[in-house]
Specification:
mainly alpha, two-stranded antiparallel sheet, 7 strands, 60% helix
Length: 550
């Protein structure tokens, strides 16, 4: 069977599976990458397609090409592909006579088997992965055996692929939702997707339901947006204020802050619903900051649409930003009626501290730009980034969520700081990289906007630290120009210099190292939190930073 005969091949199935896990179960992906480490794995599938699988820090990288000089080589035929989804058998039983051909050293081969076991044990329970593999199977059912006797209609008959058929019976698409706190967050028998140490197979669980980070973030984002809409006043002046205040929150991002807030509350035994209003307040603060940041940075686009001041003018934009911040304060105070005085005072303290850190970080960055300063060390960027975005993106949402659950002891709240400081810096560096090399449709800002605005990123700091003396006058002249005096060609000139000096590669490696340190601190500092669904979501987000593609 040739590669062009099928809708998609085994190699593409592997690539699509890794892509899906990057968004939906990054901690599982990181665990598998940790097993694979430096092993270069070559795979050949039953349809004559090929793939190369390698690990980079906490990422799995798939190239749909024949592997040259692999450490381990695996060739699957039809029967072996049938077993790959669930891997219930022991390693020796996987190697079927005349079916699964494995070549490589004993140590490397077992490491590969452990990596795939981790992927199959946890990823097989995700509905999206089940659908992906079922689509692959159903495109050529004759490969997998005879149709199930239980099937009624031949056109829709499920073929003999035990794991998929078993999961479909256990959790059919039309099955009723389990008991929930917030739109699908289960309260009975919570199953952490991956607790960082051990993993049980889907067949050992009392029920199979999605434990999907992407879906979790979507639900938390949607519930928080509902609360924001409820908090926004429905009165005049609508056109010049309240309708505009709805604009930026409606341009919803990933849902990172709401998810961290709600998950941290659940991790400490609180009701997730108790954290929704605090999550809404955080988003209002965030969007107020964004309106003002876009003015200060002279940005033209935000999340794929014109910025507030570009579309409505400076005066209205400044006022809208003020209004969003005022409404955020009111939202924090309104927790008095549901959370009581002690927790509300804790929320006020955390919110004020978060705002102070953010405006101090903004002042540092604007000062560098105003005085034509490029810091010499990465540490200066770490401090600025943590203050400007790290607190309100990562650290404060966790602390605020814990306060919603009744945690007010500073010694306990401080346990979030170092882990999420490191994760926050890594996240910001990755965002800075995506501004240079990411797709505009996905990133949501104008291409090379950071270079046009003169942002002091890790890449820029590295460039000015490593460039040749003869390059400095020209590049410094380009950098110091005002935003209105820069053209796309100027930005591309700076980007070209970064590429020559490998500044982007340097920043990518730095972000990976910081994220790995952050995950280590997460496991060490947050041992006080018992393993539960909320902590599992926090862990997934920590790993999301390390596994998302750049």
């Amino acid at each position: 069977m040739t590669e062009t005969t099928l809708a998609f091949t085994g190699a593409r199935l592997l690539a699509d599976t890794v892509t899906a896990l990057t968004e939906r179960a990054p901690a599982v992906l990181a665990a598998a990458a940790d097993q694979l480490r430096t092993i270069k794995l070559g795979l050949q599938f039953n349809d004559d397609s090929h793939a190369t699988l390698t690990a980079r820090h906490s990422r799995l990288l798939v190239e749909q090409t024949r592997c040259t000089a692999p450490d381990v080589e695996v060739v699957f035929d039809n029967r072996a592909m049938n077993l790959l989804f669930d891997l219930q058998r022991s390693a020796i039983d996987q190697v079927l006579p005349d079916s699964l051909d494995v070549r490589g050293s004993r140590e490397d081969t077992l490491a590969v088997w452990r990596a795939f076991t981790l992927l199959s044990q946890r990823a097989a329970g995700l509905r999206m992965l089940q659908e992906l593999w079922a689509e692959y199977r159903e495109q050529a059912p004759q490969l997998w055996g005879t149709a199930s006797p239980a099937a009624v209609e031949p056109a829709t008959a499920s073929v003999d692929w035990a794991a998929l058929d078993y999961l479909t019976r256990r959790a059919p698409e039309d099955a009723p939702e389990p008991p929930a706190l917030i739109n699908g967050t289960t309260v009975t028998a919570p199953r952490p997707l991956w607790d960082g140490r051990v993993s049980s197979g889907w067949w050992q669980e009392p029920a199979v339901h999605d434990a999907d980070l992407l879906e979790t973030m979507r639900v938390c984002r949607a519930r928080t947006h509902e609360e924001i809409q409820r908090l926004l006043p429905d009165r005049e002046p609508r056109a010049e204020l309240y309708d505009l205040m709805r604009s930026y929150p409606a341009r919803q991002g990933k849902g990172l802050r709401p998810t961290l807030t709600i998950a941290a509350c659940a991790a400490f035994g609180g009701r997730p619903e108790d954290a929704v209003r605090a999550a809404a307040a955080l988003e209002l603060f965030h969007n107020g900051f964004l309106v003002h940041d876009d003015i200060a940075d002279e940005s033209t686009h935000r999340r794929g649409l014109p910025t507030m001041h570009e579309e409505h003018g400076l005066g209205l934009a400044v006022n809208v930003g003020d209004g969003l911040n005022l409404l955020a304060v009111d939202a924090v105070l309104s927790n008095l009626e549901t959370l009581g005085l002690a927790r509300t005072l804790g929320l006020i303290h955390e919110s004020i501290h978060m705002c102070r850190e953010s405006i101090e970080g903004q002042a540092v960055e604007l000062g560098w730009i105003r005085h034509d300063v490029v810091p010499e060390t990465d540490d200066a960027y770490f401090t600025m980034s943590t203050k400007k975005t790290g607190w309100y993106t990562c650290i404060s949402p966790c602390r605020i969520g814990a306060v919603c659950a009744g945690v007010t002891d500073p010694a306990v709240l401080d346990r979030f700081d170092e882990a999420f400081r490191l994760i926050g810096i890594a996240f910001q560096i990755q965002d800075d990289i995506l501004n240079l090399v990411g797709e505009e449709a996905l990133y949501g800002k104008e291409p090379l906007g950071d270079l046009l605005e003169g942002k002091r990123t890790v890449m820029l700091i590295h460039l000015f630290r490593t460039m040749h003396a003869f390059e400095r006058p020209r590049l410094f002249d380009v950098l110091r120009r005002r935003r209105t005096d820069k053209t796309q060609q100027h930005a591309e000139e700076l980007l070209s210099a970064m590429q020559r000096h490998e500044s982007i590669e340097y920043a990518t490696d730095l972000a990976d190292r910081l994220a790995a340190e952050g995950i280590s601190r997460f496991e060490e500092d947050l041992r006080i939190i018992p393993e539960n669904e909320g902590k599992a979501v926090l862990r997934q987000i920590a790993h999301y930073v390390t596994s998302r593609p750049l």
